[in-house]
């Protein structure tokens, strides 16, 4: 990455050119595990965004104090703290979703996407740029999860249910979700991710950027 | 100097984060039903899974949610059931504790057609081979049930499993371990219960060919004590819903007349049975 990039460039690159899921293929564990519904994908994306923003914020604030040898220790400490807070928050306020995506919230701690942002951006740049980058990455991650979630839920269950059991979209009655049940099961995650990454690569190679 | 600085920064950060987490935990506190914790405390904490749940904590949660009965813990028995019921504010009907009995009483020397078996020394393995002994129903004697027991309540004595009812908690692990389904949990209404220690469903001739003590299905017991015994096929069966564990005149007569040696008492001998036991011992030593 060139040295002088503006905040807005960082923000945009997190969503498009450097999308953590669809381009960098980071954070595969939550991507594959919790995208079987739009609701789960949204909550997972939100939690990861919160953690990456807070971790980038703290890291860039402390960037002059952190000794290079112990930086990984401090990254991990920071990330773990905010993941724990996110987990507590979900348990207190979104109990059903928290039960559904269970262990994958604590697993954000070991999501390389987040530690990568601290290492690549936050430790070298000011608060403004770090935050822009964090929001870009967070939104990029959430969007990617949302794309997978929409495809999998609509095919696997024939409708999209938003929080509060409000049906956003329903396929016509002739559609048989049972035949597509594999889409909400683990293999569906691999199939969908493969297809979406394929489409993204096709667009990128074709030179038309920002199509995903 | 770098080390000291690094240590100070790390220590300071840890302190700040710990405070932050403490505050977050207070703000985002989730109040659990206090009864779950209370019930968890009166449970035996053996985490044996005998209730069908992953452990005692899981069972406690299920009880509070109404998904498990308050007397669902086989290990704790009536005492625990009463404690749990008290916490929930309901009454528990006293039930007899369920304990395992073995439907094969053949000792090593009673089994016929035993051939040397050099495979993996487990009942499951020997059961697949199928020809280690002539009886296709009886105990194989390779101690799968003994290994399954986490309470050290099962031991192999003379080629058959014997339950130590002082240690047994009735968790049912041995029942699942037996590949021939010889172990059954029955309600111990008395300290010791009469058991048909045979599972061979073949006719009298076939049983005689494979075992010295097996049930031949003569139906004598059914004739003398029809309330307690049933002989639906070639094997006697005790109706544990009707059988109270009491030794009535009829049962005594059956014990006297039974031509096979398969009606055995399982359980702890009580004082009132001690005399009888002494007599039994005297009888066997005479033989």
Gist of the model:
The complex is a heterodimer of chains A (212) and B (287). With 212 residues, chain A is mainly alpha-helical. Chain A has helices at 7-15, 28-33, 38-61, 71-93, 95-101, 112-122, 127-157, 186-205, and strands spanning 159-162, 166-170.
Query: What summary fits the major beta sheet of chain B?
Result: 2 strands, antiparallel
Report the oligomer.
Answer: heterodimer
Task: Give the low-confidence spans of chain B.
Answer: none
Estimate the global geometry of chain B from the Cα principal axes: elongated
Rounded to the nearest angstrom, the radius of gyration of chain A is: 18 Å
Shape of chain A: globular
Strand content of chain A is under 5%
CATH architecture of the largest domain in chain B: 2-Layer Sandwich
- Beta-strand proportion of chain B: 5-15%
Number of domains of chain B: 2
Radius of gyration of chain B: 26 Å
Integer count of domains of chain A = 1
Unreliable sequence segments of chain A: none
Number of strands of chain A: 2
Give the N-to-C terminal Cα separation of chain A: 21 Å
In whole angstroms, the N-to-C terminal distance of chain B is 90 Å
CATH topology of the largest domain in chain B: Alpha-Beta Plaits
Structural class of chain B: alpha+beta
Helix content of chain B: 25-40%
Which strand order do you get reading across the main beta sheet of chain B? 1-4
Considering the chains and any ligands shown, give keywords for the structure:
heterodimer; A: 212 residues; mainly alpha; two-stranded antiparallel ribbon; 8 helices; 4% strand; globular; B: 287 residues; alpha+beta; 3-methyladenine DNA Glycosylase II, Chain A, domain 3; Alpha-Beta Plaits; two-stranded antiparallel sheet; 11 helices; 8 strands; 38% helix
């Amino acid at each position: 990455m060139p040295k002088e990039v503006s905040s807005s460039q960082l923000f945009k690159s997190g969503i498009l050119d450097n999308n953590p899921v669809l381009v960098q293929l980071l954070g595969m564990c939550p991507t594959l595990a919790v995208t079987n519904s739009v609701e789960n994908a949204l909550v997972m994306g939100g939690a990861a965004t919160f953690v990456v923003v807070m971790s980038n914020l703290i890291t860039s604030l402390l960037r002059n104090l952190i000794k290079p040898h112990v930086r990984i220790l401090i990254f991990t400490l920071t990330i773990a703290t905010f993941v724990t807070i996110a987990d507590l928050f979900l348990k207190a306020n979104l109990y059903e979703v928290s039960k559904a995506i269970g262990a994958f919230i604590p697993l954000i701690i070991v999501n390389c996407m987040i530690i990568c942002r601290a290492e690549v951006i936050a430790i070298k740049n000011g608060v403004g740029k770090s935050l822009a980058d964090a929001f870009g990455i967070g939104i990029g991650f959430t969007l990617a999860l949302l794309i997978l979630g929409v495809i999998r839920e609509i095919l696997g269950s024939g409708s999209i249910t938003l929080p509060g059991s409000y049906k956003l979209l329903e396929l016509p009655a002739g559609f048989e979700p049972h035949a597509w049940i594999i889409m909400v099961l683990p293999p569906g995650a691999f199939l969908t991710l493969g297809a979406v990454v394929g489409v993204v690569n096709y667009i990128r190679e074709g030179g038309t950027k920002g199509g995903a | 100097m770098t080390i000291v600085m690094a240590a100070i920064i790390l220590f300071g950060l840890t302190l700040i984060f710990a405070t932050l987490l403490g505050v977050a935990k207070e703000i985002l506190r989730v109040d659990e039903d206090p009864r779950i914790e209370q019930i968890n405390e009166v449970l035996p904490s053996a985490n044996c899974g005998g209730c069908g749940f992953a452990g005692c904590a899981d069972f406690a949660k299920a009880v509070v949610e109404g998904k498990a009965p308050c007397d669902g813990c086989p290990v704790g028995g009536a005492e625990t059931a009463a404690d749990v019921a008290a916490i929930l504010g309901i009454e528990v009907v006293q039930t007899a504790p369920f304990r395992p009995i073995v439907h094969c009483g053949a000792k090593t020397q009673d089994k016929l057609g035993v051939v040397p078996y050099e495979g993996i020394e487990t009942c499951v393995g020997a059961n697949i081979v199928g020809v280690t002994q002539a009886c296709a129903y009886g105990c194989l004697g390779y101690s799968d049930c003994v290994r399954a027991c986490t309470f050290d309540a099962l031991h192999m004595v003379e080629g058959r499993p014997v339950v130590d009812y002082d240690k047994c908690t009735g968790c049912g692990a041995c029942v699942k371990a037996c590949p021939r389904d010889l172990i059954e949990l029955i309600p111990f209404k008395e300290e010791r219960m009469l058991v048909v220690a045979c599972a061979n469903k073949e006719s009298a001739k076939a049983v005689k060919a494979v075992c010295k003590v097996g049930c031949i299905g003569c139906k004598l017991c059914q004739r003398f004590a029809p309330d307690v015994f049933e002989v639906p096929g070639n094997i006697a069966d005790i109706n544990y819903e009707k059988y109270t564990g009491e030794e009535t005149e009829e049962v005594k007569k059956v014990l006297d007349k039974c031509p096979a040696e398969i009606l055995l008492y399982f359980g702890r001998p009580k004082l009132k049975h001690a005399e009888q036991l002494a007599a039994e011992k005297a009888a066997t030593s005479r033989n």
